[in-house]
């Protein structure tokens, strides 16, 4: 039988402390938390019942050092009344901690099974962990014969000799952003056979493109070959058959032509060539199973015609310079998301106010993000089944919107939205400032029959 005299965990007796604890969870700064507990004597006297500190920013070494200071009653720790609470907060930290540098690395936050360290100096301290993610912002020393077996993922801004990689490695990401004279020969035969993700990209350093494709690890599920030497690989062998995600230069397209497992493809169409002429993008070698396609053209305008795009796409994003035709997207037959927010278009499409230049979208487009550059709304021919619409740099008066739209994003201060043009299906209007052409925080005019209101980018 429950002892009703023991009120330590009784929810009604402790309800004030439960509420105070939930309020404190909304405060990020420990100084604010301390000030909160000093509001009145009762809150201070019962601080152990509801108060805890945010210790998520401590890594393992700083946590251990601080705990030792608390035990030793260090003179550097002045909050004597909060020592026990701080100790309790540290004790509740999980064993898995993450230390992040200032650089943005392309990975998600680790699960409890993955321990992340920054640079090789910390390898000795994580011997007891089964899975370690290693982030390298420095060149590894030459005296390393082989990295420990518990290193499962490596992201590095410097080249790493495959001969020192651990045999159980699952992910290798070499993002070569630092200058290195000469070309690098990557002996893929030395890569661990356990690799599932391999990413090679460069800025100043050039990998030799004649990679022995047939020697790549057979279990690869994701690959990235973005090579800034626009040379044609001599080898036409196919990449590993289980590949699902690929980011490659255009010259590698024939090496995935017959792969049925690829569903996501990011294609870099030009690397170093520059010029004013328009190139006809040849995409006949895109695998039929690709449903998510991103095309990147940084230097040259690529012509996108009806014949360019695979018909079964579910997602299409264009980044960079393109030339579109009126019917560029009409071939798309499935429910699809089209993202043009990062695209720049050549000639007259979506730019010159002429009915003949209207860009058509098929009715099966469900989500549409338009380019950030200025374009008149009157030239838009919007599909009838849209659920999400980002008008990008559209300007002018919004006369009519599809009656199926649920989310509308606005980012141009030169756009006027009338009440009668807002469909009944609309659930969210997102005022977002992202267009580089806006020099100040944008304001949007929403016109009703009685009033005219404005909303800036902080309102949603």
TrEMBL record:
Record-linked InterPro entries: F-box-like_dom_sf (IPR036047)
Top-level taxon of the source organism: Eukaryota
Protein's name in the database: F-box domain-containing protein
Organism: Heterostelium pallidum (strain ATCC 26659 / Pp 5 / PN500)
